[in-house]
Design brief:
elongated, alpha/beta, 26% helix, Dihydrofolate Reductase, subunit A, 2 domains, eight-stranded mixed β-sheet, Cytidine Deaminase, domain 2, 13 strands, single chain, five-stranded mixed β-sheet, 331 residues
Length: 331
Amino acid sequence: MDQRWDDAMTLALTMAAHSPWPDPNPRVGCVIIAEGRVVGQGWHRGAGTPHAEVEALHQAGSEARGATAVVTLEPCNHTGRTGPCSHALLDAGIARVVIAQSDPNPVASGGEQWLRAHGVEVVTGVLRTKATALNADWTFSQIHRRPRVCWKYAASLDGRSAASDGTSQWITGEQARHQVQLGRSQCGAIVVGTGTALADNPRLTVRLPGLTRQPLRVVVGLRDLPADYHLRDGSAPTLCIRSHDPMEVLDQLWHRGIHRVWLEGGAHLAGAFLAAGMVDEVLAYIAPMVLGDGAAAAMDPTVTTLSQAHHFVIDDVAQLGPDIQIHAHHE
């Protein structure tokens, strides 16, 4: 395997990691190499800003002519908020483009073919796996045309998310709750049903030092929330979707540029997403207690016998203080 561009692509991936996440656009980095030297580098700073290639070309200036552009994602070939990067690379005189990941977005893809057709040498697949992992949620959403859904729940050893009187704070300890805050910060939207919103009056915000971006809070269902509830306090954007259809919910979020959704409750909404086949990951926090009665973590009426169960593959198990965190993905 040709590994001559690995070091340059590693640098481009380092650049890409500076891009905001989550964001409607993917994280992309670019470096420009001329006579063995890095003469330009850049990364995408968020939707509506210049793409990584344009930033790197601007820094390289006239040294871009005859140089190699190493970019983590196939240069776009369409005009959106910004012009096509494939054209910008050609106009700058770039002689070779090295690409990690091909663009799965049919609207923006085609840059590789366009560059080749115009005489630019193109090398593909350099550190493809690492580049794809950097934009795993974005890549999933481009392929499936919907956000990836992670169902997060906390429960007792006997699978109860609340006691029989409805109390649920706090089933898990401080370390598990801190991990939940981190997880929220990495999603575009947090989704709950109106039952959970009315019963728990949650904030659904990220409360971590130094983090100011808040995910979209989404309430699914037909009932209204009182004006004094936290979800209507303006501390984070909130969207009410008057539907019980998981696909309709995800379609609305997809068109808002959201690529990762956290499904946080309640049991009926989780069951609806499971029944629709719209749960891609599960993040379960299990506390060492037995409640004996109370609300189950999920209620899916379509499962009436063992053969109808939803199956997942466990990726990781970790202990967080007294609690267990289980991460799994759909088979």
